[in-house]
Amino acid sequence: MNQKGHTFIELLIVTTILLILASAVMPLAQVTSTRQREAELRRSLREMRTAIDKFKDAVDIGQIAASDLEPGNEGYPPDLDTLVEGISAANDASGRKLKYLRRIPIDPMMASQDWGKRAYQDAPDTTSWGGKNVFDVYTKSTGTALDGTKYRDW
Question: Which of 2, 79, 87, 129 has a CA positioned 20 to 30 A from the CA of residue 65?
């Protein structure tokens, strides 16, 4: 009765062990994926906020003429597209444009380029954009981060 192969019980035990290992790995993979998206969100927010600050600095030192902007914008870009498309430099007859972003980053939490915006005149906790300028950006995701904070508050 020397038969080659595995018995049904041996196969059942191996399958059970594999299922237990797989169920332990899945939550770890999900946390790792979330952590990567959170890091990407922080990087994208930092990139856009830095571009907004550089635009404001350029207006303050006169590289961008305040007369080229709408009244009441406080020196901030009118929208995110202006940071990508650029704006004419003051006192530059060559037509050179100052650009601050190569492209608008994709919000990793919402998988779109639709970011929440705040104008300088808006209240700090507002969820609607006043439309005069872009003072700050945030994700429109209503989710909670691994550290317990809301993504929208970053």
Answer: 129
